[in-house]
Design a protein that fits this description.
Blueprint lengths: L4 H22 L4 E2 L2 H25 L2 H22 L4 E2 L1 H22 L7
Antiparallel strand pairs: 1-2
């Protein structure tokens, strides 16, 4: 199935924000963030990942794209520690966030990226 860019972006954004918010709510031992932080980080991760998803799967494969999404989500989450006031996260928190975002990306790449359609 082919979806429009706006629909696929919104689904990716909802999944990413939900993943970041889930980690923020259920792993308070490793980091502290509020709803604003989760939405802002989820939006930044989605925009950077959406642009990368237009380039990486075409020059490589989806495994490399998911791994790059994992690294990008972990680094952006950890950098938010220094940029956003009131947010305190550890590398463990950032890696767990990256893993959950990578899980969302596996679903997104299977269902919404063109080129791997099954007939």
């Amino acid at each position: 199935m082919r979806y429009g860019l706006i629909t696929s972006f919104l689904i990716k954004w909802l999944g990413t924000v939900a993943a970041v918010l889930f980690i923020g709510l259920f792993f308070p031992l490793y980091g502290v963030m509020n709803l604003f932080h989760a939405v802002l980080l989820g939006t930044v991760i989605t925009i950077v990942g959406f642009v990368a998803d237009r380039v990486i799967p075409t020059i490589s494969n989806h495994i490399v794209a998911v791994f790059s999404d994992f690294l990008m989500a972990a680094v952006i989450t950890y950098l938010g520690n220094f940029i956003l006031p009131g947010m305190r996260v550890t590398w463990t928190f950032a890696v767990i966030t990256g893993l959950l975002v990578a899980g969302v990306e596996i679903f997104f790449h299977a269902k919404f990226l063109p080129g791997r359609e099954r007939g």
